[in-house]
Amino acid sequence: GIQVEQSPPDLILQEGANSTLRCNFSDSVNNLQWFHQNPWGQLINLFYIPSGTKQNGRLSATTVATERYSLLYISSSQTTDSGVYFCAVDGGGADGLTFGKGTHLIIQP
Amino acid sequence: ETGVTQTPRHLVMGMTNKKSLKCEQHLGHNAMYWYKQSAKKPLELMFVYSLEERVENNSVPSRFSPECPNSSHLFLHLHTLQPEDSALYLCASSQDWAGSSYNEQFFGPGTRLTVL
């Protein structure tokens, strides 16, 4: 099946810093989503972005499908941005979403 | 209620118990999913239902038994579980399950299961 790798696995930043999270995938995809998992386990949809660039407030994402990677940018980090960020891809067929292992982000005040 | 809801949010059960997890989606979607999230492991797809028909079973042990009585409800029946089955169980839904050019999945808050 399709492989998804996220980097870095852990990231500790000061409040106000910017960050870039990366997601590499091994095959073409129909769907790519970025999620933020809060401390209670809820997966919050950030972006549905199989290709192109999208922005939502301080967050933006870019997927370059031909080169099989996606980037999530977080600007002016806040402590509430802490949590685990997952990239998940749908390669088509009956496999649903394949998740990466996530990036654990800690924003310190 | 909006989005995807799951009950209970927390469950502690013994290995000989029988319990059920419930998921309900209020989005008018046709596909529903069960995922398992264990500590230190990526989320794993367990089951996919499309229009109430099971379309995928990812080699899940028979002690997990899904049921989809209609397109809005999904159950996961549990019996004779093992301690290693302790995990966060997440339900999701999407407009369609495959072949769709737009197939964003939305997740419920999860049920945190502990098997003693």
Low-confidence segments of chain A, given as residue ranges, are none
How far the N terminus sits from the C terminus of chain B, by CA atoms, comes to 32 Å
In terms of quaternary structure, the protein is heterodimer
Number of helices of chain B: 0
Structural shape of chain B: globular
- Residue stretches of chain B low in confidence (pLDDT < 50, at least 5 long) are none
User: Which percent band covers the strand fraction of chain A?
Assistant: over 45%
User: What is the total tally of β strands of chain B?
Assistant: 11
Largest sheet of chain B: 7 strands, mixed
**Which percent range fits the helix content of chain B?**
under 10%
Rounded to an integer in angstroms, the radius of gyration calculated over CA atoms of chain A is: 13 Å
Topology of chain A as a string of helices (H) and strands (E): EEEEEEEEEEE
Overall pLDDT of chain A, averaged?
A: 94
Helix content of chain A: under 10%
In angstroms, what separates the terminal alpha carbons of chain A? Answer: 40 Å
If interface size is counted as residues with C-beta under 8 Å from the partner's C-beta, which chains form the largest one?
Answer: A-B, 25 and 27 residues
Q: Compute the gyration radius of chain B: what is it?
A: 14 Å
The major β-sheet of chain A equals: 6 strands, mixed
